[in-house]
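The data are quoted verbatim for completeness:
=====
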Amino acid sequence: MTQEPLKEEFPERDLANGTSPDQSAESGPSEARSADIAALNEKLAEAQKAAEQIKDQLLRKAAEFENYKRRTEGEYANLIRSANESLILSLLPVLDDLSRSLRSGKERPDFDVFCRGIELIQNKLTRTLEGEGLKAFESKGKPFDVQFHDALLLVPSPDVPPHTVVDEVEQGYMLNDRVLRHAKVIVSAEPKSAGPGESGGTEKETDA
């Protein structure tokens, strides 16, 4: 009886790693999966590192913005407090002149001299305010304009067209290019027409 070769019943083993061919075939996909998982873990670590860096940058920017906000608010508050400093300084000489004029008027009562002194002070104050951009505007004789005028009273007037400023109660002012204070004015209205029993002329006296 002939004996079959043993190699058919017992497959040859891989001499390099001591495994059979079937075992080598099975280990291939497992090693590939391990490599993929390792690559994914590496990418995940890189993404986490990048996220931490971005988070750190955002926290730094937020802190810088908060410091900038506090500094800006402080500068704005200081600007508001000192905004009128130059104007007040320019008005102090006028206040000094007024004080001297009042003191002089008490020491040497002279109405004409006192009035001239007050007039000089008014002119000085006007020039000072004009230097800051203040300018008075005329209203009397001009058409009523809600952009510049506040009407206090309507009066019938046959001498001027309706809606014309006939008198100015309070002066209006502009600061640079905008109205700072509206002028308070009296405005003309259309004359009332005479009724049936009314006469436009002077009534004659009747004999008793």
User: Anything to note?
Assistant: The two ends are 181 Å apart (CA to CA). The domain at 135-192 is CATH 2.30.22.10 (Nucleotide Exchange Factor Grpe; Chain A, domain 2). The longest helix spans residues 21-82. The mean pLDDT is 81.
